[in-house]
Amino acid sequence: MTDTPELSYADLVLPSKIVSRLDVARLASELERIDGEMAMKDMRTKVGKEGAALNVLHSDRLDAFLIANNLSLKDGRQRDRLIKQVHILKDKVPVIHMTFAVEADPESLGQLAEWVRASIHPQAVIAVGIQPGLVAGVYVRTPNHIHDLSLRGKLSEGHEALVKELEVVNGRG
Q: Least CB-packed of 2, 27, 41, 45 within 10 Å?
């Protein structure tokens, strides 16, 4: 971790590998696990029971997060502050609900998360849903807006015009 006296959740950068609030929660859990393992290693060292070197395993997601924020997990107090700030971040991130017709692949969700963070909010996460009835497109819900960008929505919008055109074609209009 760099020499930052006050680490704030608002300054944390979310890489594209972290897409959802669940990913942020997993990040917090992983940080707590690593903190526990490193604290145990430190305690064993202090009492003279030096064992084999501790290789703390962590996910690509945590690795990307640490790199994006220029952080290290070596100092226990800084790890503790980081864990607290990630928990706050988990509770405060803006969530954009997106419903698709089919399941989106992780790479596409990562790109979508990058776009959302660049366009809407730097810490926004996506809650993904699936509804095959949308046929194509996406249904987007934010705390104060709903956008139906699906094929079903576009067909519904043009229903009246389509009925009028069919009546004209059939000679009833």
A: 2
CA distances in angstroms from 13 to 17, 34, 66, 131, 171, listed in the order given: 11, 20, 9, 31, 61
Rounded Cα gap, residues 46 and 97, in angstroms: 48
Tokens (6 digits) for 25: 């929660």
Identify the sign of the CA torsion 23, 11, 74, 77. Answer: negative
Torsion of the alpha carbons at 72, 90, 31 and 77, rounded to the nearest 10: 60
Backbone angles phi, psi at 133, to 5 degrees: -65, -10
> What is the distance between the alpha carbons of residues 76 and 91, in angstroms, rounded to a whole number?
23
Mean pLDDT of the chain: 84
Confidence tier at 102 by pLDDT (50, 70, 90): confident
φ, ψ of residue 61 in degrees (nearest 5): -60, -50
**Length of the chain as a residue count:** 173
**Does the pLDDT of residue 147 top 70, yes or no?**
yes
Beta bridge partners of 98: 128, 140
- Residue 168: band (very low, low, confident or very high) from pLDDT cuts 50, 70, 90: confident
pTM: 0.77
Tens-digit pLDDT profile for residues 111-124: 999 999 999 899 99
